[in-house]
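Recall the central idea of this unit: under ordinary conditions, the amino acid sequence of a chain determines the structure it adopts. In this exercise we apply that idea directly, starting from the sequence alone.
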Amino acid sequence: MSSEMPLNPQRAHQLTESLTSILQRIQTANSSNRNIRLVAVSKLKPINDILALHKPPTSHLHFGENYQQELLEKSQLLPSSIKWHFIGALQTNKCKPLAEQIPNLWCVESVDTAKKADQLEKGRAALVQKSKEEIKGNLRVFAQINTSGEENKSGVEPGDALDLCKHIRSNCPHLQLQGLMTIGAIARSQATTEDAVNEDFITLRDTRDKVADGLGLDREQLELSMGMSEDFEGAIAQGSDEVRVGSTIFGERPQKKDAKVKDDVEEGAT
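Accordingly, the structure predicted from this sequence is:
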């Protein structure tokens, strides 16, 4: 566990200022005073950066990763108090180990088939069985919706979302349907402002409303996870409950082949 890992004070200060700025922008955009969750997307960034934000004064809890092996390595090195979100593309055969090997995996946001949900269920059930009373609560999942209709995007079609959500609630007792998630079209994200409507966000909200109605739930019982670095303020204005922000906090990412899980920082470094 790396809670006592040496950190570069200048880098830690820079990260703290960036995160604080994002939180302030979220607060300004949140005119209805709802609870908005910020997932700091730390993919390809070292655990030093994550720990710098997890420790006081920011004490941030929610971090998102895109690659399963990277998440597993980081989760084994960092405090168990971190709440991990897996937000990358899911492979069906890797869902069970993902849910079984990371006790503090808080949420999987990219579930788009019943088979993937079933494998996550098996993994979480196995983890609960192994850990006895240590694991409390179900693994949260978002159904990922392809709101843009792009062939290269993951996600279930909006018209099939209700069936997927029914399956999760009926057949996966160790999973909790947290809500719906989308990664919209890049062009729409770049054009989004607090005043300009994003069609992907409207589609996700409409799909959530239909799913909630079909499940007999209040619409507020299903969250909307939408909005990233370029469009999170517009997403909040259109009803998002969770935004996923990475580069605006951590800066430019390295190539995957050049990424380090841990940076070398000398004791007493300034």
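The chain has a mean pLDDT of 92.
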